[in-house]
Specification:
single chain, 318 residues, alpha/beta, Rossmann fold, 7-stranded mixed sheet, 7 helices, 12 strands, binds adenosine-5'-triphosphate, binds magnesium ion, ABC_transporter-like_CS, ATP-binding, ATP binding, transport, nucleotide-binding
């Protein structure tokens, strides 16, 4: 159960290898929620997992966070094995140095904004943070997401957009190298969503964390991603870089994505790296927006029955 020692700084922040997670339904039927998935997230990378309801996006994030135990495969974070079915390694969530942000804001209703954001700093095992340092970092995180004036408010006294900003501050306060986002913008209205996307891209650039972001919204994927992985029935069907030239919007990073793409495709033989165009997006079919991809892809991938939000524990403690 001894995790490996981290290696050089060029080590991917996340390496997922041949991951499998099956669920047994009450009926006895078995669902392959993650079906032999392999991919990497490089330092500073913004990878979006795109796919329709029930295709395994949340399960994959939860497995990386340590909230779900896969059946097969391995996960390395910063070069350290945090899960390996073969070697019987399973590092608990609080020792993975990952932050996760959920669709439902998952704030503690009885805590002020300040206390909600301070929670991860106070609850981490083995790393005591001094009280004044906590106060400094919480205020810095609240300012960063633009809600510094709300520190004494309770979640019930805030708008949805404000609550999601608090949740974002809580995810960023630890300065973790990796932040997992599970559809964090889908509960806020379109205008706020657009604003938060823009801010998220600049925050990621400024802070330099690596992001793995789940969405079923193709536009969102195009706006945020350095690379997009399309999930289809628990498998990565396609892997590509968004082509932003047609929107006039600059790439989210100045770093070369081709180097990352080459490395990723070399390690993930089943993934195909290609470029995405953000237009046209007729009828919401991502397949038609695929530039240079598979002609067989013409709509949403196959997927299982829609999963219920409640199937995923949304504890505010996370
Ligand atoms: N605890 C569980 N028990 C049984 N089946 C589960 C469980 N959690 C997820 N599943 C099933 O695994 C599949 C993948 O679910 P998951 O929540 O990962 O999908 P998703 O892509 O996140 O969907 P959504 O976009 O609706 O959130 C679904 O078919 C779902 O019903
Ligand atoms: Mg989900």
């Amino acid at each position: 159960m001894t995790p490996d020692t981290p290696t050089a700084s060029s080590t991917p922040v996340v390496e997922v290898s041949n991951l499998v997670k099956r669920f047994r339904r009450e009926s006895g039927a078995v669902v392959n929620a993650i079906d032999d998935v392999s991919f990497e997230v490089a330092a500073g990378d913004f990878v979006v997992l795109l796919g329709p309801s029930g295709c395994g996006k949340t399960t994959l994030l939860r497995a990386i966070a340590g909230l779900e135990t896969p059946d097969q495969g391995a996960i390395r974070i910063g070069g350290r094995a945090v899960f390996s079915a073969a070697d019987r390694v399973e590092v608990p969530p609080e020792r993975r140095d990952i932050s996760m942000i959920f669709q439902s804001y998952a704030l503690w209703p009885h805590m002020t904004a300040f206390k909600n954001v301070a929670y991860p700093l106070q609850s981490r095992r083995g790393r005591k943070v001094a009280k004044d340092e906590i106060a400094r970092r919480v205020r810095q995180a609240l300012e960063l997401v633009g809600v510094g004036e709300l520190e004494t408010q309770y979640p019930g006294q805030m708008s949805g957009g404000q609550q999601q900003r608090i949740a974002l501050a809580r995810a960023l306060v630890n300065n973790d190298e990796l932040v997992l986002f599970d559809e964090p913008l889908s509960n806020v209205d379109a205008k706020v969503r657009e604003q938060l996307r823009f801010e998220l891209v600049s925050m990621q650039r400024k802070l330099g964390f690596s992001a793995l972001f789940v969405t079923h919204d193709q536009t969102e994927a195009m706006e945020l991603a350095h690379r997009i992985a399309v999930l289809d029935s628990g498998r990565i069907a396609q892997f590509g870089t968004p082509r932003r030239s047609t929107t006039g919007r600059p790439p989210a990073t100045s770093r070369s994505s081709s180097a990352r793409s080459t490395r990723s495709s070399a390690r993930s033989p089943r993934s195909r790296e290609t470029a995405w165009s953000s237009t046209p997006r007729t009828g919401g079919s991502w397949g038609r927006a695929w530039a240079g991809g598979s002609p067989s892809v013409t709509g949403w991938p196959r997927c299982g029955v829609p999963s219920e939000e409640s199937s995923v524990a949304r504890s505010p403690a996370r």
